[in-house]
Amino acid sequence: MSNQTEFPEYVDVDYTAGEGQNPGDYPRIEDKIEKAIEVTKKGLEEYENPVVMWTGGKDSTLTLYFVLEVADQFDLELPDAVFIDHYQHFEEIHDFVDRWADEWGIDVIYARNEDVGAYAEEHDLDPGDDIPVDALNEQNTHHVRNILEYEEDTFPFLLDTYVGNHLLKTVALNRTLEEHDVDGVLSGVRWDEQEARADETFFSPRHDPDIYPPHDRIQPILQFDEAAVWEAFWQFVVPDTVDAFPDDGYVPQGQDDLPDGVSQEDIPVSPKYFAGFRSLGSEVSTEKSDEEPAWLQDLESTTERAGRAQDKEDLMERLRDLGYM
After folding, report:
1. 3-state secondary structure of 18
2. Which of 226, 249, 288, 299 is the most core-located residue (most Cβ within 10 A)?
3. Radius of gyration of the chain, Cα coordinates, nearest whole angstrom
4. How far apart are CA 139 and CA 181, in angstroms?
5. How far apart are CA 152 and CA 144, in angstroms?
6. What pLDDT was estimated at residue 54?
7. What confidence category does residue 3 fall into, taking pLDDT thresholds of 50, 70 and 90?
8. Cα separations (Å) of 67 from 94, 96, 155?
């Protein structure tokens, strides 16, 4: 892996691109898509070993769609996807990722904190059960005590907490980036999704080797808001992916309102969104927002991540300083 001094030398990107902007600077869906293609193409061309983060959620799947389209159109190498398996996913998320990875020919790297996972399996833990800090390996103990400065004897085996999120997601991700010599991470972060992400740029440096393996975040869909993500899905992603789906922007009103010959499994949209979830986190700490599908809910006057555990949401800015997405 290139060190902090060498890393930027072979990458020619503008780290200020997107500063001071918001989704309103890209008013039409065509403007948003054009920018996404531009950023994705630059990312695939400039980095020697990029990966695309894929959670199975709408934002990362949209990002993956742009990666697939750009790689095909410009004859560029298709990067691997990284899926952070934090042991507390909805089972439908695993099924969705497996299904579409196979359909799209995507190689998936599964990032796991196997030390924590092995302890949880050995002791048959449920989410929320306590794990003794002194049961962790040296690396995890270092993160808990020295980086997070956590002083309790135990921490809950729970994703949406400060220690749990860091160990199960950030530590797992950083280890994977290091093991695979990743220099660029294509991510589905959006400006409007969260205050901690509002100042992000299209190419965001992560070069401090004391925090993470030096790399850049490549962020093609910053300019999308939640409504635009769904517009892109129903106007472009789904019609391009599903041969039997109308190409005129048909928007289904539910899982029973699909075109003839099309089932929910044929559509690259997680079934959790059909069920009323708007943001997908862990199984134990994410609730549906409404009974209607996500794209039919009141996206303007309600909060997208309201169904997510707030103890983690409130710590997002500090978690991102430690390498969280």
Report:
1. coil
2. 226
3. 19
4. 19
5. 10
6. 97
7. very low
8. 21, 18, 38
